[in-house]
């Protein structure tokens, strides 16, 4: 809404379609926001049928004061605690700046009962990705400004890195790990890169336009993590009673269905496009998970488990 407000103040008479394209949302969302701004925030918005766009009928200097409830303020404090994982990254300064702006929009006084917030709320990750902050900062800025990059990139298992020319589309933090989704000119396709594997980076001086509308949701549809494929696999995993509660307590995938078993176990049904990541996940349960189907997943897990046993016995 702040971006819509700025567009209206510019006097460019933006249409809902233009705003939707710029903000990468549907036109229905823009219409709902405009209606909220006009009816709830009482902003003087009208539509000019000759210019095919919206405008302010009188000067509006500032966006209306933010109204916030006690519950929302508590959520904001929780979010600030979560920001601690971004300390030292290029996200820290803009995130803190955004919080400060929201703080300045609040009433001068507000009553909230929070006893020793520092001691009651915290966030902790068991493994933290190692990031070169200069590389990460370059990626973040290039992704925002649509600047083409040349990467010196080493894939897992490769001895020597290789040069890649990429158009960075999207940076995503998935399960605590950072990934770059970019168009790779060498492969002539969209590829996923891990920032910690980038050994050197430099802008080429060129900008780019996305060849097709990128959607992270569509890109990862059917994947169990970040590795998407073109297959269609009906995966059925059976978990013994000793770990079944852990399976029930989380949503592991958008397609998941659970079937309760006699004795307290549970069966997890998934529809995936790739088996690469789910196989490693099954092994992480240390024998308390059994692959019922497909057969190729069961065989892959069996072979991996045998290698673990053989490697352990040979020492």
Q: Could you describe the largest sheet, including whether it forms a barrel?
A: 5 strands, antiparallel
Instruction: Classify the fold: give the CATH topology of the largest domain.
Output: SH3 type barrels
Give the count of structural domains: 4
Q: For the record, give the distance between the C-alpha atoms at the N and C termini, rounded to a whole number.
A: 63 Å
- Count the beta strands: 11
Describe the 3D structure.
There is one protein chain. The protein has 315 residues and is an alpha+beta fold. The protein has four domains: 2-56; 70-120; 133-215, SH3 type barrels (Roll); 233-313. The chain is 36% helix and 23% strand. The protein has helices at residues 2-9, 16-23, 27-39, 70-82, 92-105, 117-120, 133-145, 216-220, 241-248, 276-283, 295-313; strands at 45-48, 53-56, 147-153, 162-174, 177-184, 189-193, 198-207, 233-239, 257-260, 266-272, 289-293. The longest helix is centred in the last third of the chain and has 19 residues, at 295-313. The termini are far apart.
């Amino acid at each position: 809404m702040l971006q819509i407000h700025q567009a209206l103040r510019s006097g460019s008479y933006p249409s809902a379609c233009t705003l939707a394209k710029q903000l990468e949302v549907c036109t229905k969302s823009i219409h709902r926001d405009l209606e909220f701004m006009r009816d709830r925030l009482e902003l003087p918005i009208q539509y000019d049928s000759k210019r095919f766009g919206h405008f302010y009928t009188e000067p509006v200097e500032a966006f209306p004061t933010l109204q916030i409830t006690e519950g929302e303020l508590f959520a904001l404090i929780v979010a600030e605690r979560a920001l601690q994982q971004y300390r030292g990254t290029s996200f820290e300064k803009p995130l803190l700046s955004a919080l400060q702006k929201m703080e300045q929009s609040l009433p001068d006084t507000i009553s909230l009962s929070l006893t020793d917030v520092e001691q009651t709320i915290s966030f902790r990750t068991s493994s933290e990705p190692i990031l070169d902050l200069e590389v990460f900062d370059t990626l973040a800025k290039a992704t925002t400004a649509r600047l083409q990059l040349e990467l010196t990139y080493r894939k897992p298992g490769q001895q020597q890195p290789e040069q890649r020319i990429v158009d960075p589309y999207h940076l995503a933090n998935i399960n605590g790990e950072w990934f770059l989704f970019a168009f790779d000119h060498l492969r002539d396709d969209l590829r996923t890169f891990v920032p910690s594997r980038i050994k050197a980076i430099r802008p080429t001086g060129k900008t780019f336009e996305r060849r097709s509308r990128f959607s992270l949701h569509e890109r990862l549809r059917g994947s169990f993590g970040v590795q998407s494929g073109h297959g269609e696999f009906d995966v059925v995993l059976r978990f013994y009673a000793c770990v079944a509660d852990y399976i029930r307590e989380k949503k592991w995938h958008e397609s998941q269905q659970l079937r309760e078993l006699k004795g307290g176990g549970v069966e997890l049904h998934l529809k995936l496009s790739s088996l690469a990541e789910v196989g490693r996940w099954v092994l992480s349960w240390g024998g308390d998970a059994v692959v019922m189907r497909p057969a190729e997943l069961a065989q892959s897990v069996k072979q991996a488990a045998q290698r673990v046993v053989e490697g352990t016995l040979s020492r």
